[in-house]
Amino acid sequence: MEITVSVNGTGYSRVVEPRLLLIHFLRDELGLTGSHWGCDTSNCGACVVWLDETPVKSCTVLAAMADGHRVLTVEGLERDGELDPIQQAFAECHGLQCGFCTPGMMLTSRWLLDHCPDPSPAQIREALSGQICRCTGYENIVRSVRWAAEHEAAARRDDDDDSQDVPE
Ligand code: FES
Ligand code: FES
Known about the structure:
This protein is 38% helix and 14% strand. It has helices at 22-29, 85-92, 102-115, 121-127, 139-164; strands at 2-7, 10-15, 48-51, 54-57, 70-72. The chain starts with a strand and ends with a helix. With 168 residues, it is an alpha+beta fold. Strands 2-1-5-3-4 form a five-stranded mixed β-sheet, covered by helices on one side. The protein is globular, with a radius of gyration of 17 Å. Bound molecules: FE2/S2 (inorganic) cluster (FES) (2 copies). One FE2/S2 (inorganic) cluster is lined by residues 37-39, 42-47, 57, 59.
């Protein structure tokens, strides 16, 4: 069957088998290998991408189900050559070691911050509870999300201050 999917703002049309999983469509058809395939049991969350505005485990979604929809992968977090604050945060706070879980962690964290800009550590842990990290013990991942939240709050304050400046 032929499907057309917008991935990170670019439209792709491909003929695929109806049984093809979205994770394999992204990695094998489009060469977007930032999303990782870590298990056969829908447990690890390394494959998380956004389908429209919702994080999904792309190993549990058929590529056909993405037909006519928008997908955001880790490759699409960067904007105009600038890393998303959540990407900066994982680098600043050592939120990764091997990095295998990191794309999914960042996409879920981005969604969390878009819906809950000042999450508590408990809220962060709950949001990420569907994802497994074998390396970090989660502490630095939680710190990374808090770092991004604080930097985004500071940027919003700066924007507010600038908009209140009265030109002479
Ligand atoms: S690859 Fe493990 S949950 Fe999708
Ligand atoms: S950094 Fe290795 S699995 Fe999370």
